[in-house]
Write a structure and sequence with these properties.
With about 325 residues, the chain is an alpha+beta fold. It has nine helices and 15 strands. The two termini are about 15 Å apart. The relative contact order is 0.19.
Length: about 325
């Protein structure tokens, strides 16, 4: 039995953080500089009382409505998030209740970042192909803005909050092919929030500022941009090569590459390094930013609207962990 993406939708919180707002807070920057370097004009951020489950619920309801999905068919929920509502219970269990899904529905969270959607597809495919579930609701939801210090202009220009909902079933518009997955925990310290969980439950209160004026704090999101950049260029080309080999697909037979939308500069360098035709390189981040595990499914929605999801589409996620994953979607 094959597994397919049958439906896919996304949700963005109402509050918009524009480049103009950021420039008012950081006058040493310009709107043009942010847009050119990062490729983002607007990003959406949650309010103080909005959490990952709220975004995921909206995304799932959009999926049911836009694709005319009867929610009673859902028999498993997978939620990818690094910003759960609580340490416990599992946020996916809350979503089963909020969405009114049947109690015979399985539900679990998994904690991954920018590779999370690809890993989620692998998990959902396994559930369908093993006949454990018929219809898997794969959700991604992140509220990274809650982790970012208000004076961190670097990360605030990059990240946005969002949620997506994908239905994986035994039929659909995109067959899910074979995967290439990997992990290197040696890079864990390069993208991290150190305090708040069980290793360091108390705040460090150790904020300092680097030479660019950006805050560095164990109590907020820390990203070593240069190390993440080097990791991406070192890792992703071989991931894609292995995905093509596992699926018996030549590079010439790929119609579109949908990578994690980290930032435009990184993707430009990556596509140049891999000598990928600019007409096959997909970008969608200017109005949403880097939404972590939601970037690939959001891009897939927009690419489908444009009629560009056809033939062999390579998807690849990479980042925090370090963690990476890729696969081919065989689109009708």
């Amino acid at each position: 039995m094959a597994a397919y993406i049958k439906a896919i939708s996304y949700y963005l919180p109402e509050t918009i953080l524009s480049n103009q707002i950021l420039v008012e807070e950081f006058p040493e920057w310009s709107v043009e500089k942010i847009a050119k370097k990062v490729g983002v004009v607007n990003r959406h951020v949650v309010k103080n009382d909005e959490c990952a489950s709220d975004l995921a619920q909206h995304a799932a309801l959009s999926l049911f409505d836009e694709w005319n999905i009867d929610k009673s068919c859902i028999d498993f929920v997978l939620l990818c998030t690094q910003s759960p509502d609580y340490f416990l219970p599992t946020t996916a269990c809350l979503l089963q209740r909020h969405l009114g899904l049947r109690t015979s529905c399985g539900a679990l969270d998994f904690n991954l970042g920018c590779s999370g959607f690809v890993y989620g597809l692998a998990l959902a495919k396994g559930l369908v192909e093993s006949d454990t579930a018929n219809n898997v609701l794969l959700l991604t939801a992140e509220t990274y803005s809650k982790y970012i210090h208000e004076r961190d202009k670097g990360n605030r220009t990059i990240f946005g909050d969002a949620a997506t909902a994908t239905l994986v079933s035994a039929d659909g518009f995109a067959e899910i092919g074979s995967f290439e997955l990997g992990t290197d925990g040696n890079g864990a310290d390069n993208l991290i929030v150190r305090s708040g969980a069980m290793r360091h439950p108390d705040r460090f209160e150790d904020i300092a500022f680097d030479k660019s004026g950006n805050p560095v704090s164990s109590d907020h999101l820390y990203m070593n941009g240069s190390e993440i950049f080097n990791f991406t260029l070192d890792t992703v080309p071989s991931v894609v090569d292995n995905v093509l080999a596992k699926n018996g697909v030549r590079q010439d037979d790929v119609s579109l590459y949908v990578f994690h939308q980290a930032n435009k500069y990184m993707l430009d360098c990556l596509f140049d390094l891999m000598e990928i035709d600019e007409h096959k390189a997909y970008f969608y981040m200017s109005e949403v930013g880097n939404t972590v595990s939601s970037t690939i499914p959001i891009a897939l929605v927009e690419a489908r609207k444009e009629g560009r999801l056809r033939g062999n589409v390579v998807v690849a996620g990479f980042g925090v962990g370090y963690s990476w994953g890729g696969c081919i979607l065989k689109c009708k």
